């Protein structure tokens, strides 16, 4: 809660670092004073560092490079001396922004006033607890707010899923979102940083987004930017297809037709005397491993050895299931020379009519 009251995520992060909406002067002043009370550096410094983090994520030019470990990203990058320097970031807009420059110039005084003096004075005057104001509303609130912000750099790069892109470390997780007042849908945020939302699905926890939406209703915030939902859907689909492709790659598939030998009718007849070969849809199958297990009986298979069993398999005797068709394709050992008339849907097993293919440079793709 202290994080939201500080207005740090609303102002420092989504307004000034990412320009994801515009705010009236009154809201800007409220947010810059609230942001000062968080004692996390001037907004100019913070936004510059944050832009550098986005531009150089997971590299040594990223001030909180997740590859350097959880402790480093959480707090180490500020505590320990290091020769690392933040990479370049465009700050032209921040240099021209009068509110940002004003806060940067008077930052120390603003910290003392809003970070310590105000909490102490309010508690002292209102209910006589000066020490409680300083310790609890001042120091304790700051500790909580600091660690809440630190969690964005640490656990939001370690915990959770990557629903939009898995090239870098940012991740989405409800726990990170709860700890950071909604900044925990970090995979989404790194993919679509110009979006004023960190979480765009209605059930995802993002109080910062709700606050900005409320300000928009009140006329205090304008031009709320959202990334085109069609493009967000593409990112989500890409990751789902990737997962499906991994699953697809873990499954065994029939031999690629181009890899099968072309067998003459005479050769088929000769070989069928040695082993139980059955012709279905132009493909020659070796049914040896299935003869005993065939639910339709051993004899129905043996009767068709060396023959064309296409019509029997596809309804002449029994209309086999997709599962039977898929299993049959695994038994392919050759293609009959000259072929036979085969209905195209009989040619491709049901399990291969829809599949995930990787586009190659020439735009072609092949069956799994
Ligand atoms: C190698 C080729 C074949 C394979 C892999 C195969 C596979 C199967 C499988 C998995 C079933 C269980 C039901 C289903 O999934 O549809 C089945 C049932 C059956 N098959 Fe085949 N089959 C083959 C060839 C044949 C042939 C050539 C005939 C007929 C001449 C035939 C006749 C039947 C019958 C009648 C049943 C139904 C059994 C029942 O439930 O009463 N099958 N087959």
TrEMBL record:
Residues annotated as transmembrane: 25-47, 106-125
Subcellular location(s) per record: Membrane
Family from the record: Belongs to the cytochrome b5 family.
Gene3D superfamilies per record: Cytochrome b5-like heme/steroid binding domain
Organism lineage string: Eukaryota, Fungi, Dikarya, Basidiomycota, Agaricomycotina
CDD domains (UniProt xref): Delta9-FADS-like
InterPro entries referenced in this protein's UniProt entry, alphabetically: Acyl-CoA_DS (IPR015876), Cyt_B5-like_heme/steroid-bd (IPR001199), Cyt_B5-like_heme/steroid_sf (IPR036400), Cyt_B5_heme-BS (IPR018506), FA_desaturase_dom (IPR005804), FADS-1_CS (IPR001522)
Classification via SMART domains: Cyt-b5
Domain of life: Eukaryota
Protein name: Cytochrome b5 heme-binding domain-containing protein
Record keywords, A-Z: Fatty acid biosynthesis, Fatty acid metabolism, Heme, Iron, Lipid biosynthesis, Lipid metabolism, Membrane, Metal-binding, Oxidoreductase, Transmembrane, Transmembrane helix
Primary location: membrane
Membrane topology: Multi-pass membrane protein
Cytochrome b5 heme-binding domain location: 266-337
């Amino acid at each position: 809660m202290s994080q939201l009251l500080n207005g740090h995520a609303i102002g420092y992060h989504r307004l000034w670092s990412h320009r994801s909406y515009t705010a009236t002067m009154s809201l800007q002043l409220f947010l810059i004073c609230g942001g000062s009370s968080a004692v996390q550096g001037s907004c100019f410094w913070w936004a510059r560092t944050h832009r550098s983090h986005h531009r150089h994520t997971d590299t040594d030019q990223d001030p909180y490079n997740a590859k350097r470990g959880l402790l480093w990203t959480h707090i180490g990058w500020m505590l320990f001396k290091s020769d690392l320097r933040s990479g370049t970031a465009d700050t032209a807009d921040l240099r021209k922004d009068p509110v940002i420059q004003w806060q940067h110039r008077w930052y120390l005084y603003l910290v003392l006033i809003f970070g310590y003096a105000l909490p102490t004075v309010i508690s002292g005057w209102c209910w006589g607890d000066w020490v409680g104001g300083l310790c609890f509303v001042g120091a304790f609130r700051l500790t909580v707010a600091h660690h809440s912000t630190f969690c964005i750099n640490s656990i939001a790069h370690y915990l959770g899923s990557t629903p939009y892109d898995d090239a870098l470390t940012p991740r989405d997780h409800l726990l990170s979102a709860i700890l950071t007042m909604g900044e925990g849908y970090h995979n989404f945020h790194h993919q679509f940083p110009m979006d004023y939302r960190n979480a765009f699905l209605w059930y995802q926890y993002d109080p910062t987004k709700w606050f900005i939406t409320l300000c928009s209703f009140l006329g205090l915030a304008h031009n709320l930017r959202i990334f085109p939902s069609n493009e967000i859907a593409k990112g989500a689909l890409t990751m789902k297809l990737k997962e499906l492709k991994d699953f697809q790659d873990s499954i065994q598939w029939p031999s690629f037709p181009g890899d099968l030998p072309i067998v003459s009718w005479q050769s088929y007849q000769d070989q069928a005397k040695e082993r139980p070969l059955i012709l279905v849809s132009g493909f020659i199958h070796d049914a040896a491993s299935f003869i005993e297990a065939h639910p339709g009986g051993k004899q129905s298979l043996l009767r068709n050895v060396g023959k064309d069993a296409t019509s029997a398999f596809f309804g002449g005797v029994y209309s086999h299931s997709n599962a039977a068709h898929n299993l049959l394709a695994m038994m392919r050992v050759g293609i009959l020379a000259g072929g036979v008339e085969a209905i195209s849907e009989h040619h491709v097993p049901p399990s291969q009519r829809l599949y995930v293919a990787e586009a190659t440079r020439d735009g072609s793709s092949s069956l799994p």
